[in-house]
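Our working data are protein records whose layout never changes between entries. An example says more than a description, so a record of this kind follows.
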Amino acid sequence: MQQRLQKIIADAGITSRRKAEQIILEGRVTVNGETVSKLGSKADPERDHIRVDSRLLTRDTEHVYLLVNKPVGYVSTVRDPQGRPTVLSLARGIKQRVYPVGRLDYHSSGLMILTNDGELANFLMSRSSAVPRSYLVKLEGRPEAADIAKLASGIVLDGRKTEPCQIRALGQGDKPWYEITLVEGRYHQVRRMFERIGKGVVKLKRVRIAFLTDQGLAPGRVRHLTRAEVARLKAWKGTR
């Protein structure tokens, strides 16, 4: 049965459906030897020979769902042209090709999901999912209460207002800690939000994705999600 190419690529565990669309537009996909670079193109994964970067796609028979606590100093990509360690190198012994859901920058740490389930990855990264992600943030100085309230209600980034978020103080020192919970994930959003009120981020760690926390998962460690956890993520309705 014919399906959209981006879905086939995501189901094969290559990357998320969103990233698959970019791969197609870049002309890196061939179907039966012909380059396909138009979104909306379809193929039959059972009959057609589909290649990404000259590699023949094979459909993974088993979906894998991993929770990893990324340390500082790892990139959250499949590969890095600079040769830096990737978060995938932490998932030792996993035979299936998995990829990160979303990003954490090189200098940040915390929770990430690795999977080869393109449908779930696409859902978790979509704006409509509204999956909350909580971060612990250490600032370089003490912000004003009015500035924190401004961030919580939403500010304009890249021409679009951020969604309301929850921010609470965890200390009152010269370099205080805050917890911030977002329901969206724009590029370097947490760092950029605090920079807008003149407070740089010294440390940043993601400690929660939906109901998943870093409790019992040390930096650099990985665990499989349980069936119940996977089912709960797939059925996410925005409940806390």
Summary: The chain is about 20% helix and 30% strand. The mean pLDDT is 90. The CA atoms of residues 110 and 206 lie 4 Å apart. The longest strand covers residues 201-209.
